[in-house]
Amino acid sequence: MDEAKVFTIGDKTMEAVFRPAGLTNVSDMQAVFDATETALSAKDDEIEAAHAENNRLRGLIEEAQRCLDGEPEYHSQGMGCGLEDRGITDRYDAMSHGWEQAMERVYSENIAWAKDALASALKEKADG
Predict the structure, then answer these.
(1) Which residues have a Cβ under 8 Å from the Cβ of 6 and sit 6 or more positions away?
(2) For 7-25, what is each residue's pLDDT tens digit?
(3) Nearest 5°: CA angle at 39, between 34 and 40?
(4) How far apart (Å, rounded) are the C-alpha atoms in residues 128 and 124?
């Protein structure tokens, strides 16, 4: 004849699972299993939600990184635009003008978007 097995419910399990579920008499094992499953399922849902949020933020960061890693296309016809209009004839002044224009474009096309996307994601995370 098989000997009956005795299982001991630990204090932490009793406090975290059984008492909140109103199961102070653990003789009804189906109710115990149901309460345990409910508690574990709630944790699974929390973990799944955290993974989804992590993946969303990772996607934003990767998109921002792609923007920061990218460089605008080179437009050979547009490179000299504005020099004559501004009376720029010195090559160093032309280079300085080109640099300023390039930096404005890189900032507007890449950096500003990346900063806005990351700031928005971080604000949502802080507010939520």
Answers:
(1) none
(2) 667 778 878 877 787 777 7
(3) 100
(4) 6
